[in-house]
Amino acid sequence: MKRIVIADDSATARMMIRRCLEIVGFGEAEFVEAENGREALTHVKQSPAFLLVSDLNMPIMDGEALLKWVKASPKLVDLPVLIITSAGNPAKAEQLLNMGAFAVVNKPVNPALLNDVLAPLLDKED
Amino acid sequence: MDAIKQLFAEKLTETLEETLENMAFLSIDPATAETAAEYSNPLKEVHLLVTAPVLMELRLRMAEELLFQVVETMYIMDRTDVTEQLINDLLSEILNTLAGRFMADILPTNQTFSLGLPEVMEDNSPSEDNLLLQTFFQADEHPLSVSIMAPDMDDIVEYFEA
What's the CA gap between A9 and A35, in Å, rounded? Predict the structure, then answer.
């Protein structure tokens, strides 16, 4: 079973992201929710994840710091990190992609957007 | 300054329409301060600071009833199960998304920006001194309004007229 960790300080945002992921083909996945980057990092270290979806602007540890920690860890470096942010623009997106983000998309998300972005992962085996 | 206010008002309306349509399947219509003032049911308000490249504050005020309706639809929940925390979270996320889209729209493509975290506040009407813009809308006959505050109007003029 694919394990997907969703990090966002908003319960509403986590719910919306999860609904969209279920619609685009991850309906059978195990979803783990985190309220900040530190919680998310703990979850992905505890057990292998298929995908990490993270907001950028969060308390305690933000999405950029989370991405740095993940990409600096030999065990986690291959984990795809999808950044979903309200504070994004092309310059920020390029910076995050250079840091190793799988993709960067702006809020609000919808199933069509996530389907396009996650297409390379949708048929991937666990 | 009038040109900046007009640009902000246009972009704010566009981004609010997109945000509410995408997040809550809500459509909005323009309204006036008078219609908002006539509304006698509870309102909720959330604030969010823009900390770079210019200092501004965005405030979103929405009818609590509208937020309840959106939560009931989005979460597929009974009214009795909807908590104030969930209502506040939705309001905050709407403003967070709105602020991001608005800033991306008004700034040059390669200009990064920073947003603070949204804070739900007790009713606190904006002071006229710091008020840059206030726009009124309604959705399903419930009011909502967005205000933009700026501590230093000269900074705003200098940045956006450059």
Answer: 4
Between CA A28 and CA B109 the distance in angstroms is 38
Q: Give me the domains of chain A, ranges plus CATH numbers.
A: 3-125 (3.40.50.2300)
The gap from C-alpha A125 to its chain's centroid, in whole angstroms, comes to: 18
Of A9, A87, A110, the CB nearest to B113: A87
Q: Do B109 and A90 touch (CB under 8 A)?
A: yes
Share of residues in chain A with pLDDT > 90 (%)? 89
Instruction: In whole angstroms, give the CA distance from residue A23 to residue A114.
Output: 9
Rounded distance, CA A35 to CA A59, Å? Answer: 8
- pTM, two decimal places: 0.91
Pick one of 3.40.1550.10, 3.50.30.10, 3.90.1210.10, 3.90.220.20 as the CATH number of B2-161.
Answer: 3.40.1550.10
Q: What is the pLDDT of residues A69-80, one digit of tens each?
A: 999 999 999 999
Q: Do A16 and B109 touch (CB under 8 A)?
A: no
Instruction: Tell me the sheet residues that pair with B44.
Output: B62
